[in-house]
Amino acid sequence: MSEILKIIQERHSARVPFDPKRQVSKENLTQILESARWTPTAHNMQNFDIIVVDDKVVLEKIGKIKSHISEEFLRENYEQLSFSKEELLKKKTGILGAMFPPGWVYPERMAEAAKKAEPMPLTQSIRGSPTLLFIVYDSTKRAPASHGDVLGFISLGCLMENIWLMAQSLGVSMHILSSFAVPPVESEIKKLLGIPEPMKIAFTCRLGYPTGASKYLRVRRNIEDFTHHNQYGKKGI
Ligand SMILES: Cc1cc2nc3c(=O)[nH]c(=O)nc-3n(C[C@H](O)[C@H](O)[C@H](O)COP(=O)(O)O)c2cc1C
Question: How far is the centre of ligand 1, averaged over its atoms, from the C-alpha of 230 (Å)?
Answer without folding.
Answer: 31
